[in-house]
């Protein structure tokens, strides 16, 4: 699955707000798709800004001219899961359709021993039965404003990288706070084209989000890890939430109606939030990924995977508790493996190197651009600094530690004016931060202990058992015993305790004898040092990529799209099958195919359909399209994105990319990479005939 | 399980004859058990040489005086599986009893799609039905001779480490060849006490080995990976082979009779081949293990584990093919994790450091020993060299590559006199080498391809995609595509082709266009360079540890045992339960307990007993002891070791150590570490009542 996750774990950001492992996005596939640095050379490539759509191309190639109303409706009907993922409004009363694997985080948080919503599914019989998610935040993009001039004006040419980084962040923070105060909307300044442009995105936030319907994991993730990133597929990877305001279903002006058709070769559009691409990367930056960062990251993912598998062996309840994390890790491991394999193909670098050499040759002959060549050297030097810092942050996994770290930092940062704080602690982000910090989602002591023990052991391995900070952290105990003492002694499980600490501010935090806070205070100085160094490197890269972007604008014109940043983009392409190993892969599978696939696999896990499907089989129209592929350019973060036709009607929901969209093969057959969707027709058929969800069907078809 | 495996993978030896991942042995537990460097301070500790048993201790503590006949019978009834593991003769007609997991390698090799001896078990109805193993070699130790003087005389004090290493190896080779010519017996010179002593071991070799009986994996490995290294247990982890000579059952003079009793607190003896311990290691060497080697090795194990799991997802037959490797890897991963955890406990190093400091202080005050203090510095320097070389060998996994490498090296080495060759190519080892090289065991192209692709990718990650050797190895292809081409183009699957190449010698090998041979020729020069450097380091360490051993002999007397070297040792201790978390763990479980454990786990995998056991339940004496624990000092390689009582009768077969024998807890409660055995009473009961093996029972009780 192309997992909903968006942020990057490079450098200091190895602990995330969502306490999740993050995906880099289907990096290599994406890069391979890109002929030049930015400009699409392959037809229909691109993740376009809603305020800069390729209108001329759409008109010329597809004779399609989206009206302003078409575009506005699609943009405002699109929803971002702030936890990492995409979705859409599908009713006037706030129904939100996304992937089962995007909702999984919430399904797990709403489950407990003996009540497994993830595996067993859920259907709210009435509005009153809809279950409130403990910490979801949904964002609806309402406007985009170019603020490049204001940001660039804050950075003076005589500043060091550290000064420039601080000045830029402060300028962003000021704009965001002003916007929040003026509009009341969530306001984020987004860095585009590697640092050449800055746009202010304003979002309406929804924080009362309730679960309406979810199918069983056996059909949502039919084929499991084995079939992940494969095609053909038979997955009902969807679920429904509803946004509320003032304890009543929110009134939604812009939403998508279900299409009643799906046509081969029809042009479709994907509106979602691709997480992160690196198509502007230089050869030096890609080499760093291939030879240094990704191998290191893969070791980390494998380590987490084995640790979670081992934890799950302890019992059925442990298996349930570890499932969400395990899925995320396995999904990332499979995706990153595909990316790394693609980059290890010598052909990939050969092509990349030739293009870069040719470009550098041309700009050296151009008196205007000549001075920009130094940007490539700066990027190369930055990679060496990255390599030297790799693994140097004393990062620690686990929800409890993450809470402790947030509390410790928040107390310290809040003593400063908002523009000078670490970025996530700016005033304009406070609501989102607290949404997470005070979540009522369960925290499992045994799982926390397993994660923490592994983190402490990993720290000891990275720095050596005699490193002073390691000795302090372990405090004379083995990693296992120390983890047990930390988890068993902490009161951070309790939301009220966290609220009291946050309210008490720096003095309350400093005085707390909670062992997890003591640990966070212990490692924070070093973690901040490393983060600061990474932010300096990022600033160097930002300035260099801004120069490179200027070169590319000059060379190739501006009809291009920037690298993905987990913000709303439009991709497009026809519904179309492909050739693989001499076989024709049809554009879509059918509901009947799911039963055939189950039989072909002897109905063994993970190819065993739920009982509900067997019961409903005779009622189902087995010819209904189930999953389909199109050529649109997508990546991690696009999970749950609505797929619409020219009429703006919902034909599907993105949930995966095929293996060719990750692997090196792609270079030889760009024709094979496909985005994989659940057909809206299948969603409707299942809601009616498998799940008997009359209330929902009525609302969707109203 | 304490896995049968014996050799070390440190340094160059990452490809082994048996194409298996190797275990370091339950290192940390072992080290923790050792109060001093060599001398046991904990009662009943020790893996004693058969020619230097602690007779005074046995007499004093247990009032037991083994007669020469008792010792000779036990030594000659003990059997070594050259593939890594221990066993015993249990009938006059050559029956050999070992662990199911020691025989697993052969069970898999005798299986094929639709005929899974590992999972489904096997019973030969008659002699004619016994199945010949494709490549087993069993060794029976017949004599031990001290050759220290001869070896030491070959090394001059003015030699460099490289020269000394060569001279020592040549001297060993000469002694071995002379012995082989004189006696016709397999002759191995063994390095003891880190290099202070050298003994010549002579073995009778059995190479016609046939499978007689094996239970289902569901009972042999009841509880699976989850229960591995845990206790209480319910595993019938045994199987029976028979050695043949001249196509008839071999006549065996020394064998063990099954005991008809098992008594709590009775003294028992374990006669087997512990693989490798490092109790003599200095603090610097242990730090290298903790901070550098073991973390690296764990990453490698996790990588292999995930790769094999992913391969198994492709189908049931793939699962079967990968099972033996996957078990080995999981077993090693769990054991090494326990070792590393033990070493990460600061208390472990604190104690070790204090003892070393005190020892160094004492010898500095001793005019005789003062000069020996430099040995510790030499070891420390050697660790830095080890760290610098770590991961530098272009090692490649997979049976086909292993065969190619052996052929390439054999052709090159055979041009030299035997004493000057790489050690495994000496004349006296040729029969064993060919036993493996010309094995008829199946080689699965798909599994080979998966392993090779992963190896090539790992090489690219370690050296960087632009490293010249990597570029040559990949030859313009991605790791996956290159692996596919190599495997699909190779004829090394064919035993006759391998025989022809071996017979053709260097010219045949050099001219072969088999892509796997081309690959082996390509990487061999660099692999040899790295191996040479490692052998130099080992020589430095050998000389230093010999000095350290002298100090310890002087300090602590000579009533000690050397570190394990996969040669026959005797351990002992009482059958005894232990306390854990306030609970009393009884010395043995019963057959009835297996049914209770199955029920307690809801009969879900891997706690599901085979159908044969349910059918036989009413006939079984459910009070029969099943698995039991004793305090004997064992480690990886001891798997399958016979456990005998004072009368020399077989009471059990070692198959595991509990988690406390690996983990740091041990330091605080030496009382908890236990060796785990299958009771011979359970074997007999199952043979009679579950498997109806009357022919075998009759032979065993004759």
Protein architecture, described:
- The structure is a homodimer of 702-residue chains.
- Chain A is an alpha+beta fold and 702 residues long.
- Chain A contains 25 helices and 21 strands.
- In chain A, the strands form three sheets. In chain A, strands 2, 3, 4, 5, 6, 7, 8, 9, 10, 11 and 12 form an eleven-stranded antiparallel sheet that branches.
- The longest helix of chain A has 42 residues.
- The relative contact order of chain A is 0.19.
- At the A-B interface, α10, α11, α12, α16 and α18 of A face α10, α11, α12, α16 and α18 of B.
Shape of chain A: globular
The helix-and-strand class of chain A reads alpha+beta
Task: Work out the helix count of chain A.
Answer: 25
How much helicity do the residues of chain A have? 40-55%
> Using CB atoms under 8 Å apart, which protein chain pair has the greatest interface?
A-B, 43 and 42 residues
Task: Look at the structure and give the mean pLDDT of chain A.
Answer: 90
User: pLDDT below 50 for ≥5 consecutive residues: which ranges of chain A?
Assistant: 3-42, 663-669
Tell me the Rg of chain A in angstroms: 25 Å
Q: What does the largest sheet of chain A look like?
A: 11 strands, antiparallel
Short description:
2 copies of one chain form a homodimer. With 702 residues, chain A is an alpha+beta fold.
